[in-house]
TrEMBL record:
Name of the protein in its database record: MBL fold metallo-hydrolase
Residue ranges constituting the Metallo-beta-lactamase domain according to the UniProt record: 28-223
Taxonomy, superkingdom: Bacteria
Organism: Naasia aerilata
Region feature (Disordered): 34-55
PANTHER family: L-ASCORBATE-6-PHOSPHATE LACTONASE ULAG-RELATED (PTHR43546:SF9), UPF0173 METAL-DEPENDENT HYDROLASE MJ1163-RELATED (PTHR43546)
Lineage: Bacteria, Bacillati, Actinomycetota, Actinomycetes, Micrococcales
């Protein structure tokens, strides 16, 4: 648990691939742990190849209060070392299917279900599970269940973590049901696998559209480097945002970099939108 912080602030640190630390409301969250070294990783009936190791090891990371695991069935979202890491965390939130497979240490949430966590300042921070479509519409039976997350609470910015979602329709639904969204951590990379001729996550060209649909102050992409099946990268994200109305909202981190985002508007509070 982190020390007292500005309630307007969200700190995001990219560890690599889909793995990022998010600090909000005095709590430390970690998305989709992938801590294994480069090499093949089992992923269901197939194998995915990790090309770059994490910027930090679990030992370097420090305490984590909650893991937000979008799904457990694919190696690029939970690799071998990431799976071992789960036992060191007080709370893991994921799909109901992941909870059945991983055991009692995982809390499963269905779409739009919410759980509430105690904050160090005596307030509450809510974690709401939101839909994610991991590929074309109708892919759920093949890819397995996947969720995203919205972190929100009184006096805090609202943060959307997309998980492996390829649907702009879902992005629009999240904005409609849980907006206004202040900041977003969107999984990109345009992931593809040989058995399916389709993108499994948002593409670089879709990220500016998603940013506009959400109306966020800042958007941090993750899941866009470090694996061989990612067809797009940070360079393509930069190109997609260049010259667009969303260019100033993009915060592109390299693994090991972090940013502190500060909400412009909360009740009774005004301030700068970001610092780094």
């Amino acid at each position: 648990m982190s020390s007292a912080v500005d309630p307007r602030a969200v700190r995001v640190e990219l560890i690599g691939g889909p793995t990022a630390v998010i600090e909000l409301g005095g709590l430390r969250f970690l998305t989709d742990p992938t801590f294994s070294p480069p090499g093949p990783q089992p992923s269901g009936a197939s194998t995915l190849t990790k090309t770059v190791g994490p910027a930090k090891t679990p030992e370097d990371l420090g305490p984590v209060d909650v893991v937000l695991l979008s799904h457990d069935q694919h190696g690029d979202n939970l690799d071998d070392a990431g799976r071992a890491f789960l036992s060191s965390v007080p709370l893991v939130v994921s799909t109901g299917a992941a909870a059945e497979r991983l055991g009692a240490s995982v809390t499963g949430l269905g779409e739009w279900q919410r759980m509430s966590l105690a904050r160090p300042d005596q307030g509450r921070l809510h974690v709401t599970a939101v839909p994610a479509v991991h590929g074309p519409e109708g892919m759920a039976a093949s890819s397995g269940p996947v969720i995203g997350f919205v972190l929100h609470g009184e006096g805090l910015p609202t943060v959307y973590v997309s998980g492996d979602n390829a649907s702009l329709r879902v992005v629009e639904e999240v904005a409609h049901h849980l907006g206004p969204i202040t900041f977003a951590v969107l999984f990109g990379g345009g992931a593809r696998v040989p058995r399916l001729d389709a993108f499994l996550t948002l593409t670089s060209d879709q990220l500016p559209i998603a940013t506009e649909l959400l109306g966020v102050e800042r958007m941090v992409p993750v899941h866009s480097e470090g694996w061989a099946h990612f067809t797009q990268d940070h360079a393509s994200i930069r190109r997609a945002f260049e010259g667009s109305a969303m260019q100033e909202r993009l915060v592109l981190l390299e693994p090991g970099e972090d940013v502190t985002l500060v909400a412009r508007e909360l009740p009774g509070i005004a301030g700068d939108s970001w610092r780094r």
